[in-house]
Amino acid sequence: MEKYYHIVTYGCQMNVHESEKIAGILRAKGYVACDGAEEADIVVFNTCCIRENAENHAYGNIGALKKLKRSRPEMLIAVGGCMTQQEGAADRLRKKFPFVDIVFGTHNLTALGDLIDRKTAQKKAVVEIGREEPVSDEDEDISFRTSYPNAWVNIMYGCNNFCSYCIVPYVRGRERSRRPDNILSEVSALLDGGYKEITLLGQNVNSYGNDMGGAFSFPGLLDRICERKGKYRLRFMTSNPKDFGEPLIRSIEKNEQICHLVHLPVQAGSDRILKLMNRKYTASEYLKKVELLRKIVPDCQLTSDIMVGFPTETEEDFRATLDLVREADFSTAFTFVYSPRSGTKAAAMEGQIPEEVKKERIMRLVEAVNARTREKSSAYLGKTAEILCEDFDEKKSLYLGRDEYGRMGYFKSDADVRGRFVKLKINDASGVSLYGDLVEE
Ligand code: 5AD
Ligand code: SF4
């Protein structure tokens, strides 16, 4: 009899990719995917804790399974990911949701198969959040990938930066780089398998190799990967601006496979706030790096993460953020309301900002970011864009994919062109999406 799994994922691309690894582990144990918790024999929550609302979502959805679990006690419920790895979180989870069968940390992902066996053999819940054996490298790709023609590849795990607002260094541990040979062979196998776009993942890709005695650097890794010729795209995230510089820019310039789109989270435009955030750069240093990038790679687009309402942020500080948004000319940005995370420096700071003020600032910030995104969209009108077709949108009855700069383009096609590069003549641009007609080649 077939056994079914259902995975619910929260958070960043790192987590989305780790859910592909979880899926790989479950398939190796004989499970196949199903559409929802109702039919599932195991439900896995892969959680995030970067902001309070990410946690609230997960709490809500785990809680909602209580009834189902009562009617089908043999169904397994597992909770993994970043949330479980916080101080005392496993106990809190067990207390709040006694019906959860397995709690596993980000460091114990590859043990999930064994944890399922242990749980099946005992009545008591299984909790594994130890850090003795950090996931630092893997020789073989265990992922069950569902994002063709795009593929994510981890190049490093963890973070050493300790930005004062951020929980990541606490839940993901110290930086561990994968060995270049393992990365190269994984990328190679993916390209052999027909994947067309590879995104390298790390909390701070610019630190790649720092833990290997400086024998390898991130630009060096990019150069090595790009020795493989052929038509494919290479992306990476995330770059910390403090370590972003000319060697990386030169690698982007030199290697035609690397997309001219850099995600460079700035967080804030006020030097006083940046200092309190422990970001180790000033607004003008950030803008100088952007200027150098655009000088060497003139068509390079930039996206960012920006936060409002950090402790003590004044109206003047916030205006500095708005000024920077204007000057940096982001093609789009992810905008966030600061959310205190227990255990971080910023959570203990005086001068937490009232919710109404945060709300008012985020609305102004979003408007500033969107205005620029719309302008950039209308610049596409009448032009031709090259799209890597990713999927077919059933509702719209249109194929869709992204251009090198990350813009989503929709189009009609008689042939199934998923996984292929196509050219579109853009005739409509609304918000972040482009609409166009296939240009025959
Ligand atoms: N509150 C709000 N946003 C946060 N981020 C990280 N920590 C917090 C927090 N405590 C944002 C940052 C980061 C992105 C992934 O999430 O902007 O770049
Ligand atoms: Fe990703 Fe950070 Fe959320 Fe973990 S806490 S899922 S690393 S954003």
TrEMBL record:
Residues 3-121 form the MTTase N-terminal domain. It is found in: Cytoplasm. It catalyses: N(6)-dimethylallyladenosine(37) in tRNA + (sulfur carrier)-SH + AH2 + 2 S-adenosyl-L-methionine = 2-methylsulfanyl-N(6)-dimethylallyladenosine(37) in tRNA + (sulfur carrier)-H + 5'-deoxyadenosine + L-methionine + A + S-adenosyl-L-homocysteine + 2 H(+). SUPFAM superfamilies: Radical SAM enzymes. InterPro entries: Elp3/MiaA/NifB-like_rSAM, Methylthiotransferase, Methylthiotransferase_CS, Methylthiotransferase_N, Methylthiotransferase_N_sf, MiaB_methiolase, rSAM, rSAM_horseshoe. SMART domains: Elp3 (SM00729). It comes from the Bacteria. The keyword tRNA processing applies. Its main location: cytoplasm. Monomer. This is tRNA-2-methylthio-N(6)-dimethylallyladenosine synthase.
